[in-house]
Specification:
The protein has about 550 residues and is α+β, with helices and mostly antiparallel strands. The chain folds into four domains: about 110 residues, no CATH class; about 160 residues, no CATH class; about 110 residues, Ubiquitin-like (UB roll), CATH 3.10.20; about 130 residues, L,D-transpeptidase catalytic domain-like (Beta Barrel), CATH 2.40.440.10. It is about 35% helix and about 20% strand. Helix 2 packs antiparallel against helix 3 and helix 11 packs across helix 12.
């Protein structure tokens, strides 16, 4: 210590010494006289050994000459003198000790109301200061107080004590610290530092603080909401995508944390560490996220293989497009997405009624549309199969479920394969091809080319075979009777509306343009010579494709 503080302490100590002396019943003059007397005694004592030696020598000489008293009497005088000197020394020593005690106690009394040497409180040197003086220093801290707000983007803002209406109230710890001092061990404080922090009680203006908070950029600026962790498909499986912390402030939490920091006079507040920003609902460690991820991977473990003209595989990449997870980590199979996939699947592989381009047995390129033959996937039935497989993580290889009659010979084009009946309406000719080779061919007569009698083009199949059938026409409104009744020996149905192949013994000839002649063209059926009809009937199997084209 240097300067005024040292001088102040010295003056205070001297005052304490005087007070202690007064309490003992002695004035400063008495003390001075005692000190002077003691000094003279000390001087006398210092000279005593030499004088004593000289006196002793003289006594000895006198004894030797026989002119003085005997040695016994001389010894008694010497002892008395020595004891007197010793008593004087003891008095002096006692006086010195008493003086030191007075000084010691005086200093101790001083420190009963002042802080000891080397005392530091809340960063301030409080040596020799009273509680009141210490409070003044702490009040200065309040006036200069600033709270730094550390924000998630690395920026910061501040709130001063004045902006919060901060006021000093008390610091009870100062008095407790004073009372806890061991004043009788004050010399130890000269060599040992004491550092302490006391809690300062403050008050703030809630309205002013609220207004300041509302003006902070952290509150008024653009805020990004947090994003929860969630299962994310990485191309092979679902993995947990970590959460993202945004900049959306929880206003009530922010005010609570700021108020708490101000009450404790903290220098800074980390808004992220103090959870002032809105937290994601779920973290990557959340059980709900893990369970959802596991379930989605279970669904994706399913594998369904459809052996079309090329394998169609329903596996994780496909299934991942069907399953969703909501903000409550609830996993759901999107049934509409499954049905949409089935529609696309059907559009690609259903062939009923589609346009087909092919080469006829005669070698010409032909195109045919319409009809009832071909693939027709039963999407409703297949939907149930897929849902069950996905939910249970099954592995399957299967043909899709088809509607009745909704199958074909091959998935590749032409899907009727290499065994079929080909009817060329332009050429009025037909072929029966078996395993790619012509087994039978003949001229025919087809329907007269008028709307009510024309033979429909398209791809069909043999639906029915029968011997000795009577073909019945539609009801004539004028008579209420069928327009015709025609017996045939060989009947091979192509459509349920009444189109088929059969013998036509009433035809004088076949081929050419006979079908264009009224009364010669059929009502839509394919008329054949009797022998050819019989041969075909014997060879033809149910379900054989029938291609009718121009």
């Amino acid at each position: 210590m240097e300067g005024p503080e040292k001088k102040e302490i010295e003056n205070n100590i001297q005052t304490a010494e005087a007070e202690a002396a007064e309490k003992s019943g002695k004035s400063e003059q008495d003390i001075t006289r005692e000190e002077n007397t003691e000094a003279e005694k000390e001087k006398t004592t210092e000279d005593a050994p030499e004088a004593l030696c000289q006196e002793t020598a003289a006594e000895t000489d006198k004894t030797a000459d026989g002119d003085e008293t005997t040695g016994e009497g001389a010894g008694e005088d010497t002892a008395e003198k020595t004891n007197g000197r010793r008593r004087k020394i003891l008095y002096i020593a006692a006086g010195c000790v008493a003086a030191l005690v007075f000084v010691y106690l005086g200093i101790a009394a001083y420190f009963s109301s002042h802080y000891l040497f080397n005392t530091e409180i809340n960063g301030h040197d409080m040596t020799g200061k009273t509680v009141k003086q210490a409070e003044e220093l702490l009040k200065e801290d309040i006036d200069e107080y600033v709270l730094e707000l550390k924000e998630i983007d690395g920026s910061s803002e501040t709130i001063s004590g004045g902006e919060a209406g901060l006021m000093y109230e008390s610091a009870a710890g100062l008095q407790r610290n004073m009372e806890s001092q061991d004043i009788f061990l004050w010399p130890r404080a000269l060599f040992r530092s004491s550092t302490d922090e006391v809690e300062i009680e403050v008050a703030y203006d809630a309205d002013k603080l609220g207004e300041k908070i509302d003006s902070l950029h952290a509150v008024t600026g653009e805020q990004t909401p947090p994003v929860s962790a969630y299962p994310k498909f990485d191309g092979k499986q679902y993995v947990i995508e970590p959460e993202q912390y945004g900049t959306a402030i929880q206003r009530d939490v922010l005010e609570e944390k700021i108020a708490g920091a101000i009450e404790k006079l903290e220098g800074s507040l980390d808004l992220e560490a103090e959870k002032c920003y809105a937290d994601p609902a779920y973290l990557s460690t959340s059980k709900e996220v893990k369970d959802a991820c596991d379930l989605m991977n279970q669904y994706c473990s399913a594998r369904i293989v459809y052996p079309m003209n090329e394998e169609v595989v329903v596996d994780a990449p496909v299934i991942s497009g069907w399953i969703t997870v909501n903000d409550k980590m609830q996993v759901k199979i999107d049934e509409e997405a499954v049905r949409l996939w089935l529609e696309e699947f059907g559009d690609k592989y259903d062939t009923v009624g589609i346009t087909r381009t092919f080469k006829t047995p005669a070698g010409k390129e032909a195109t045919v549309s319409g009809g009832t033959y071909g693939w027709s996937i039963n999407e409703d039935a297949e939907f149930d199969v897929i849902i069950d497989a996905v939910k249970n993580g099954k592995s399957l290889e299967r043909e899709p479920e088809y509607y009745i009659g909704g199958t074909a010979a091959a998935h590749a084009m032409p899907d009727w394969g290499d065994t079929y009946v080909d009817i060329d309406l332009s050429a009025q000719h037909m072929w029966y091809v078996v395993d790619g080779s012509i087994a039978l061919e003949t001229d025919v007569v087809t329907g007269q080319p008028i709307p009510e009698r024309i033979t429909p083009e398209g791809t069909y199949s043999i639906l029915e075979k029968g011997r000795n059938q009577v073909l019945v026409g539609s009801i004539d409104p004028s008579t209420g009777e069928p327009s015709y009744r025609t017996p045939v020996s060989y009947w091979m149905r192509v459509t349920w509306s009444g189109i088929g192949l059969h013998d036509a013994t009433w035809q004088p000839a076949f081929g050419g343009t006979l079908n264009q002649i009224p009364g010669r063209g059929s009502h839509g059926c394919i008329n054949m010579p009797l022998d050819q009809a019989a041969a075909l009937y014997d060879m033809l199997e149910m379900g054989t494709p029938v291609v009718i084209h121009y």
